[in-house]
Design brief:
The protein is of the alpha/beta class and 614 residues long. Helices cover 33% and strands 21% of the residues. The chain starts with 5 loop residues before the first helix and ends with a helix.
Amino acid sequence: MAFEAIHALVRTAAERSPGRRAVSSPERTLTYAALENAANRLAGRLSAAGVGPGHLVPVLTANRDETIIAILAVLKIGAVFVPVDLAAPEARNGGILAGTAAGHAIVQGAAAEEFCGTHLPGARLLCADVGDPDQDTLDAEAVRHIPAADDPCYVMHTSGSTGRPKGIVGRLGAIDHYIRWETALLGAQDGWRVSHLTSPAFDAMLRDLFVPLANGGTVVIPPPDLLLDPPGLLRWIDAERIQLVHCVPSIFRGLASVDGLELQHLSCIAMSGERLSPADAARWFERYGERVRLLNLYGPSETTMTKTYRFVTAEDTQAASIPIGRPMPETEVLLLDAAGRPCREGRMGEIYLRTPHRSLGYRDLPEETAAAFVTNPLTGDPADVVYRTGDFGRLLATGELEYIGRKDHQVKVGGVRIELGEVESVLRTHPAVRDAAVVVHEQPDGASSLCAFLELSSPSDNDEIRRHVAQRLLPSAVPAVLVPLDQLPRTISGKIDRRALPVPVVPAAQNDQEVVPPRTPTEKALARLWEELLPVAEVGVRQDFFDMGGHSLLVMTMLSRLRAEFGVEVHLQAFLTAPTIEALAGQLEEALASEPDQSEELLDALTDVAGGAR
């Protein structure tokens, strides 16, 4: 397949249908002509300001449509976009910006301008000019750069073991290869409407943007905060006639718990970033059958988005895990043992990925790049480079790959890759923390959260330590559970002995409130549910959900369970206002009062779950 720059494919779609909708957001709708013209104007201003091929250009925009304009503009002049998610912690974003040492940035809003002024002093700031959003006449392209497949085009940041995010440098040809492959696999075409749910700071968002834009489709951007509301998100997907959704399995878990919709337009949900639970797929098939395809994807950002795939079947839901499938074209999976030899069928080995469409490595980190992008152990040819994923897998009798787990301390929570060493490093910067060990705690429903075991040098409040971490790391990297220990277990060499760490359980000392036990059938039913979801053995009706290790993904699961098991819908904002069993029970009992025809049935269900008698 001959290389064609991804922004050139967008330009071709615009020439074919300039008046067609390219982007639909809560703020506005942009035709292809309006999108292209806005990107051309910004590209011309960047070029006139001295930005050229290879220059880094941070992008800080709250509105996703302006992010798309900025990305296209940067690509048109051969520069490198560095997307920054304004919802991420300021300390993280500040480190990313300062590390670019960029002379120019694309911003939107006073807050973004002030932030850039602090961390990129002296940089020239430009704004994306949307212009006439209804424009359907395509202007001539003002800036022309001749791109090559190996040109760097973006820097996406992931966790680093030193506590400083690592910048992965993307290759232009790799985007083109992936987008055209997925387009052919799914049959994407003119008019397809694709949701944009992914943070701009992760390479997975490139699928959201370019699968539709390279094919004359529409990028559809949801209202803010809809990701935390599974019923609302699925209703939005249905109402907006979305045909393709890319998301992490944690988001899918919430969607799979919602029924009552026809989803006539939805064609495929493509998932990556963490393990897809067979139980979640089973719930989806029970509600919606197999008309909507579920696509399981695997692959690290270092090899550009994903590199293996499998369409999930109903039979997969009976297995212990869902395979991650076979490699996409121009990709080879090597499964090697500790000696670098190929593993036989059924034997576990480390996954290496061989593809010309990998990234260009880590920016300004040659040693880490050399450690991850290595000579193929099977050929010994220095020109034959493979990416060592650190993941373990097993080759099945079908020839497909099964994912086993991580080799090191790098994990994924909520689809976001997290280096446990980075979390530990940030914890140790707190004055009361002498040392820390962070592990992944898997919930009964397959969701994951982080548990931090702390060796303290002085007494400290867990909430204060958690706030310290939240100011410096992504939300998914903030430990849900903090467990103080007198001393961390260590090996004879002095290293932390992770195998000797206790099972993550929140000690009673983490909550100074008097524990009030559940009193009514409603409270008892809720307590039973919370004890299943949270890493605690016993809960009180006035204890805060989040203080006991809860997080946003568990909130989604809990609300979905209430809806599925009791037929009651509790609104997310109402729960967040008072996240206790006592308050939640009050909301359920209000629902009982407002639905007298269902009250007896619901009360019986609650009583059965609670194990009590009316």
